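Quick log. Single chain, no ligands specified.
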Amino acid sequence: ASLFFFGVDLSSFEDVQLHLHKVRGAINIGLERAIQSSDGSQSARQAYDALGFERLYRIGLHPLNALKNKAESILTSQKESLRKENRALLDLVDALAQRLPAIPDYVTREGTIDENLLRAYDERGSLTLLPISYSKQLETLSAMLKEQHLH
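-> predicted structure:
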């Protein structure tokens, strides 16, 4: 159902595979948040048993949608200046503004930009997208977008 809801091109194996990884990332984020909301008293298995995949997915989608909305706002107000000044940041914001956000492969598990991976991206000139799979990525990226929006 998610493939249809998000309008994934079913004829593209790469698009379907990336989407499935994004769904898995959303479920993982939901699981992390469920455990966190229980102050760590709940194991991953207990959280899954109590909530199931669909609720965990929805819990994970909520902060991803908030991140997407921030990215869309920045694109609306700053796209041209980013295009001129910081192509890598524009590519990151573009990826975050997708219906189900993603990140370029130069963003780490912690949500920071790895300079070595960024140089490799600059050299190859093509963008590889990855799913957002961790709450820490969300927190760091959200703070980064908030800082960018203030500029």
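The longest helix spans residues 44-85.
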